[in-house]
Design goal:
The protein is an alpha/beta fold and about 300 residues long. The protein folds into 2 domains: about 250 residues, Rossmann fold, CATH 3.40.50.410; about 35 residues, no CATH class. The strands form 3 sheets. The protein has a 6-stranded mixed β-sheet, with helices on both faces. The protein has a two-stranded antiparallel ribbon with strand order 1-2. Helix 3 links the parallel strand 3 and strand 4.
């Protein structure tokens, strides 16, 4: 889709602030974890050579080392580059937030971290912005400037609709991604049913669900009678937030929604990364990388 938006100086400053804020994490913590987890999936054995200071212990070939009476390591070459696709929910609910960052700002920082990390590993990164339609598509490319362009678009692309239908974006990704890709879906996952498109996309690609969560959505504040507006439909509703029955129904609905999502992702073997806007993304992403690496080691041993 053609780029038609003009870029305000404030958006450019915001992109620069996000780059500065994420650069340290990318360089010091995420690049190595990403490389070992995802690039390792496309590795092919090359040779055995003698151990050198700085080599990872886990690459030591203990059988050869025992025969030769000194340490040797296995060397691998990467079979291919990765294609990373970011599917970002830009519906009305993404503008919701009760702290320093709303879900849209958190999505932009996540896009920065993931895109810049992939770029540092010489991978291509693309973007699909979606509401209840495909709002904007950036084909996968390499490079820092391209990665920052994705961040800018997440922050400022002028969306045409406020509704949510992730199924459309998942179907679209299934059609346009012709080779195996790593797909991050960044959303609050409050959407129309998406079981089938999730299943179809996860069968061909490595799919990761990054779920955005804001503390203001976890419980109703006790404010008496309040007039609320749905950010996606614009519909107003008045409720008594002090009423125990109202608060109980809200809590039950939220728990049911969360349980259904987790059950669906587990059934399809899709990893879930829960990111809370008030706590940030660094620790959830690192836990995800560590979990994937541990699981990969167990699979390789078997």
């Amino acid at each position: 889709m053609a780029e038609t938006q003009s870029i305000s100086p404030e958006i450019l400053r915001q992109v620069k602030r996000i780059e500065l804020r994420t650069r340290g994490l990318v360089n010091s913590r995420f690049v190595g974890e990403y490389h070992s987890v995802f690039k390792g999936q496309g590795m092919e054995f090359s040779e055995v050579r003698e151990y050198q200071i700085g080599d990872e212990v886990r690459t030591i070939d203990w059988n050869v080392s025992a025969r030769m009476h000194r340490l040797f390591v296995k060397r691998y070459v990467e079979e291919r580059e990765l294609t990373v696709m970011l599917i970002v929910d830009c519906s009305g609910s993404s503008r919701f937030g009760t702290g320093e960052r709303d879900k849209q700002s958190m999505a932009a920082e996540l896009a920065a971290v993931l895109a810049l990390t992939a770029t540092r590993n010489n991978d291509r990164v693309g973007l699909i912005l979606c509401s209840d339609r495909i709002e904007h598509v950036v084909p996968p490319r390499k490079g820092r400037r391209h990665a920052l362009r994705l961040v800018r678009d997440v922050l400022a692309w002028p969306t045409t609709s406020r509704g949510t239908n992730l199924a459309l974006a998942l179907d679209y990704a299934s059609r346009v991604l012709t080779h195996h890709a790593l797909v991050f879906v960044i959303s609050d996952f409050v959407s129309a049913p998406m079981d089938r498109p999730l299943k179809m996309l996860s069968q061909r690609h490595d799919l990761v669900a990054v779920v955005l969560d804001d503390p203001g959505e976890r419980a109703l504040p006790e404010l008496g009678v309040a007039r609320l507006v749905d950010p996606e439909t614009g519909r107003f509703v008045e409720i008594d937030t002090n009423a125990a029955s109202v608060r109980a129904r809200y809590g039950d609905a939220l728990d049911g929604e969360r349980a259904s999502r987790q059950q669906l992702l587990r059934r399809l073997a899709i990893d879930e990364v829960l990111v809370r806007t008030e706590k940030g993304y660094a620790e959830p992403l690192l836990r995800f990388f560590n979990t994937r690496e541990t699981r990969g080691r167990k699979t390789r041993r078997r």
